[in-house]
What does this fold into?
Amino acid sequence: MQPQVSESECCAIAVLKVLKHKVKHVVECVILQTRWILVEDLNYDTAASILLAQTSHASMPIMKVMAIWQNGSSFVTLVAILVVVLYVDPTCSTSRKTIQHHTPHPNGFKVRLRHVDSGKNLTKLERVQHGMKRGKSRLQRLNAMVLAASSHDSSQLEAPIHAGNGEYLMELSIGTPPEAYPAVLDTGSDLIWTQCKPCTQCYKQPTPIFDPKKSSSFSKLSCGSDLCSALPASTCSDGCQYVYSYGDYSMTQGILATETFTFGDSGNQVSVKDIGFGCGEDNEGDGFEQASGLVGLGRGPLSLVSQLKEPKFSYCLTPMDDSKTSVLLLGSLASVNSTQEAVTTPLLKNPSQPSFYYLSLEGISVGDTRLSIEKTTFELGDDGSGGVIIDSGTTISYIEQNAFDALKKEFIAQTKLPVDNSSSTGLDVCFTLPSGSSQVEIPKLVFHFKGGDLELPAENYMIGDSNLGVACLAMGASNGMSIFGNVQQQNILVNHDLEKETISFLPTSCDQL
It folds into this structure.
């Protein structure tokens, strides 16, 4: 279902929807971020009949424009009057609430991140295995999103799906007075949401369910708001009703609203008003149980970073077996100093998946050997398929099948250890560790991005387990797009600059931030 519009917006949508496919000669202009199609050679009677047939909103402003047109005004005059009507006439003024673009806090702000398995008595390999198990459904979701978009199958696209869940939780507060709101951090989706009363169906969460009636800053968004229009699916009934699906029967459904969100550590908190979010009254599926909801950090208009108008954000992930928290930085704190030795690569855009952060990966080396793989292996296809995304919610990296086969072959050839073929770990490449050995020499692994080469620390791709006597490569094969996972990002400050459209990698001791 497409977002509905209010009566006062009919003049801003009608010409687009009604006349777009009716005529050949059109002139396009952008007014109030809405694409209008104004037809120079369409007569008044035809235009009026089409408008009245297609919309029940016979609004006075449209009829005013029609009347002026009927009286012989030129096309240029019509455009001018149309603009004036939109901006001046109170009966046709836009009812859409402008998305709140907040001035970044002068010092930026910091949010602590906690891995979903923190506090559990698990080895590093066990943590990776747990993450991989959770990541299977996520990988399926991500690939399903791309396949649905690239297939141009309208039946698939009617119910858009999103990445969902994740591996890191962020602590923040919502409402006035503020209530604790642990949320899944997800760079693969956009919508911010939390479970809300009254719940028709809600999963068990670690904190009390948010009650909007107890918050003085809660406000429902209208169907004609910009954020409602940005939803992939919505209906209009007592405000903007949304449905957001995650592709494996996980979903959230509720009302789109604005609230005050509070970020930062105690003693250094920042409150930001009017952040658009989903107040979910029907929430189903796996992967959310440790959180009250989800915070999307994708590139789309519904995400936190887009609403704040922050030009950049960074995160720095501590190793999985480190008890110290990771960190998310927004605003000026997210800046990477130009004197620091960061690897910076341009972000790519995929029109079919505008929320994803696509990387410019050109190749991979094992040791001093650059893998012999096709140049197009990591490129985005014309239909939006393929490519490489960076994702905080996927545990290990998944590489296109042919590239992974070459990587596996070269890694085995250069690693002077017997291969373990038991498959007990769930990872594709494992080696048997010699008894009594504490140091094992393994080949270096380098990702060649456009703009620079990123050599990973050994602990970011080889996971050893002395109990099992194995060491495994924390990577796997993908039949669709490739994913640069969070194990490979540990102890690296990953800076997303949405203004420059770049991502930077800076080796950092994340527990020191």
Q: What stands out?
A: The chain has three domains: 7-88, 109-329, 336-507.
